[in-house]
Amino acid sequence: MAYNTELYANYTEAQVSPRGIAILAVFLTTGEHDNAAFKTLQERFFIIDKPDSCTDIENFPLADLLPESTDHFITYSGSLTQPGCRETVQWVIINKPIYISHQQVHMRT
Length: 109
Ligand SMILES: *[C@@H]1O[C@H](CO)[C@@H](O)[C@H](O)[C@H]1NC(C)=O
Known about the structure:
By secondary structure, this protein is an alpha/beta fold. It contains 3 helices and 6 strands. The radius of gyration is 16 Å and the shape is globular. The two termini are about 25 Å apart. Bound molecules: 2-acetamido-2-deoxy-beta-D-glucopyranose. 2-acetamido-2-deoxy-beta-D-glucopyranose (NAG) binds near residues 9, 10, 12 and 13.
């Protein structure tokens, strides 16, 4: 998620304002192998189990969570998925999934 720094001073302002936020979304589906990048995130889910909790992950290129090809995507103006659901989001959805293992799908954190 990123906010429009050309129009707004901060995320708080952007999330309630037109064309305020951009969200890049990737679908996950099951495959044969563990996904190492997803595993890095998944191992920390238990730390962020309460509102406003956070954790740092160093040396984690977000590109590792994208499919090999990002040539095709759809984009549309939509809303946030959290209460408020304001229509301030430019969604970018990559049309190829990334794969995680069945074990990762069922992992308890
Ligand atoms: C965000 O920017 C707005 C407009 O400049 C300002 O009024 C507000 O205090 C800022 N909020 C934060 C959390 O910095």
